[in-house]
Amino acid sequence: MVTVRRWWDRKVLQVGLLGLAIGGAWMLRQTQGEFLAEAYQVITRPLQMLQTGPSLEERQEERLKSAQFLEMQTRITELESQNKKLQDLLGYVQQEPLASRPVPARVIGRSADHWWQQVTINRGANSGIKEGYIVKAEGGLVGQVDSVSSNTSRILLISDLKSQVGVTISRTSAKGVLRGDSSSEAVLEFYEKVPNVKVGDLVSTSLYSQKFPAGLPVGRIKSLDLKKLPASIAKIELFPAISSLDWVAVYPKPTNPEPEQPTNPESKKSN
Length: 271
Hints:
By secondary structure, the chain is of the alpha+beta class. 32% of the residues lie in helices and 26% in strands. The protein contains 3 helices and 12 strands; from the N terminus they run αααββββββββββββ. A 6-stranded antiparallel β-barrel has the order 1-2-5-4-3-12. A 6-stranded antiparallel β-barrel has the order 6-7-8-11-10-9. The chain starts with a helix and ends in a 20-residue tail after the last strand.
């Protein structure tokens, strides 16, 4: 009896499974597989999303947002930098007597071919600037106004190869001519064959200069060659950051008394 029941149970199970298979086949035929396809999509969609990641549109939108954020961050950084430089310049300008305060100006033009020769600023005749005016930055002398239009001016830098400035050593009053070297350094040629100077001495404009007033800071002696002929020379580290000028101060050229003449009649006349 038990054996017959087991046999019957197995047959019933087989018949049930066969019925499910036939019913499933009939359903697939009637729906043309749409039900199975939909079920497959529901089951596999999360896996597909994990595998493929964001859509192309989503990725493009994310890149755009990232680019806009970087652009805004760059602008903010640049504005903060310019504001700091302007504040430093204004602080420098305010140290001058009220009657002789200069015109602040920003460098707006600089050619790669003439990087150490000249710059263009955003102030001109309409701001009262004239040719020959003195240009300084934080640190000291930068150059001189070479030409002027209504709203801009061109500045000849002291780092220009053609630039010549009469200078003196603050510690000993040794004098010479400072010439541009198309770099952040300049060459000082002394009047004396063996001047009383040393590395680290400070350099400023002298009474011999016909273009600049005396006493403007220029730089410091970086190295010396006292055996150079026909005159000793020194490499001068310029104080103003001429390689990265952004803001400058433009001063009227003062009327200097007649420059004193060198005691050595063979001395050179400086500009």
